[in-house]
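User: quick one, sequence for these tokens?
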């Protein structure tokens, strides 16, 4: 068996691992990047990027089919080439992966090692039985894999996940989607708009990660206009065979027990950290009841079995905290810096929480959500909610995207903007605007002092801010929806 010695061993070459590698190299030349699978991040291969290609195709086709109100006509309808849609996804996906591979090619050969890592003891790894790596510090960046609950496994070979969907040669005719979270909602709506028959089933009532119950209920109604969505479904049996999968369920409205056939079952039921092959017990890392290491959010440093910090760090999807690319790269940078200059640890800079769901209307969450706020604040006493219904918002009406709602949360006394949730047109842009304000610890008054151009969707944010300001007793209540700002503002 070969042996090598390094200052920092990084297990996993995904987004977090690559970020950690670059950060650690600033402090020591002795860094080893270990990868057991294919190079290329989850984002590029199966996540952010290929899913957005699918969503973009669905939006283009949906918009083409709804040009009538603008005075246009498509006489012969829109014909979907089910093979071409999937081929473009793979072509674009491969191009995104190529950029990652080109970057990794530039790393020194001595800094890369292929193979599956297993922890031997507190300072050594065994890599696929061929190499022993002795390290001073290590970073766990092993990513995650789709989780398929036992009740869904009856679908057998007809199960798809976000890791396998994009490998289909052509769009299927029908799909049962289980899990209306961020991934399920994005993919399910896109498939429905591409003429795939979709039924979407949830269990706990959640939709797109929304925490505000009023917005969640409104979102369920909106999405049911396009496809069947039951966030609290009662399913009884799932059986797969060579030709498809049968799902027996209680129909949401009628209460009738139905059995329907689908080409595939898409399991969008979350992901689990890739930790089972690491043998964490050999290093004595303290874990929670799900087997995920206990770690310090600010330094990314793991704790040993006596709850003491040690020389191992964990980042990205592996820590099961925030499965978002910008969070993964931030964590990689923080852990890489700390491992590189260990034991000189620094608390890393963490950004305000920002989550975006690329369905339509889009969903965004910024800062603290209602359940988090209500741990310390009482509605009407400590905080208030500014609201906007986009039905009559001018720019949204012009674009025929006037569906959705915006809730802004602010604190009594200080006037501090606490956070927001929205189901709204182009929420990806409104969410960024609100996240920047939240990260700057702006007050409602300061936000209202910012410029708002007419006519824009951002004017809807101003209207909600004025409503929030009135409820916080910072200014008079609105008599109308800001007619001095322009019609429909």
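Assistant:
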């Amino acid at each position: 068996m070969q042996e090598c010695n390094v200052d920092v061993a990084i297990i996993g070459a995904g987004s977090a691992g690559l970020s950690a590698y670059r950060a650690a190299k600033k402090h020591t030349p002795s860094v080893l990047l270990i990868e057991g699978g294919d190079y290329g991040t989850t984002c590029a291969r199966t996540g952010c990027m290929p899913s957005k290609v699918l969503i973009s195709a669905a939006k283009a086709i949906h918009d083409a089919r709804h040009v009538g109100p603008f005075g246009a006509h498509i006489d012969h309808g829109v014909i979907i080439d089910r093979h071409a849609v999937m081929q473009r996804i793979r072509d674009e996906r491969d191009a995104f992966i190529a950029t990652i591979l080109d970057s990794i090619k530039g790393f020194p050969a001595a800094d890369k090692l292929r193979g599956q890592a297993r922890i031997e003891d507190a300072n050594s790894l065994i890599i696929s039985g061929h190499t022993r790596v002795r390290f001073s510090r290590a970073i766990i960046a092993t990513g995650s894999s789709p989780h398929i609950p036992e009740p869904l496994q009856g679908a057998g070979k007809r199960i798809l996940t976000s890791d396998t969907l994009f490998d289909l040669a052509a769009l299927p005719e029908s799909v049962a989607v289980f899990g209306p979270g961020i991934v399920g909602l994005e993919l399910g709506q896109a498939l429905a708009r591409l003429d795939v028959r979709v039924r979407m089933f949830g269990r706990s009532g959640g939709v797109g990660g929304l925490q505000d119950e009023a917005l969640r209920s409104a979102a369920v109604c909106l999405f049911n206009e396009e496809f069947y969505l039951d966030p609290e479904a009662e399913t009884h049996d799932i059986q797969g065979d060579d030709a498809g999968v049968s799902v027996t369920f209680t129909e949401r409205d009628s209460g009738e027990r139905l059995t329907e056939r689908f080409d595939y079952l898409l399991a969008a039921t979350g992901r689990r950290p890739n930790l089972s092959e690491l043998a964490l017990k050999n290093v004595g890392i303290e874990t929670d009841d799900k087997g995920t290491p206990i770690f310090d959010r600010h330094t990314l440093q793991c704790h040993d079995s006596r709850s003491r910090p040690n020389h191992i760090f964990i980042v990205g999807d592996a820590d099961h905290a925030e499965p978002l690319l910008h969070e993964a790269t931030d964590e990689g940078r923080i852990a890489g810096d700390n491992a590189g200059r260990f034991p000189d640890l620094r608390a890393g800079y963490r950004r305000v929480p920002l989550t975006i769901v690329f369905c339509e209307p889009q969903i965004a969450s910024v800062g603290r959500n209602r359940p988090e706020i209500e741990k310390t604040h009482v509605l009407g006493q400590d905080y208030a909610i500014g609201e906007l219904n986009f039905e009559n918002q001018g720019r949204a009406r012009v674009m025929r995207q006037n569906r959705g709602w915006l809730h802004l949360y602010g604190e009594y006394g200080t006037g501090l903007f606490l956070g927001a949730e929205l189901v709204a047109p182009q929420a990806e842009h409104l969410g960024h605007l609100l996240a920047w304000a939240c990260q700057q610890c702006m007050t409602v008054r300061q936000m209202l002092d910012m410029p708002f151009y007419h006519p824009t969707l951002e004017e809807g944010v101003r209207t909600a801010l004025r409503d929030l300001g009135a409820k916080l007793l910072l200014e008079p209540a609105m008599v109308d929806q800001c007619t001095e700002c322009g019609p429909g503002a």
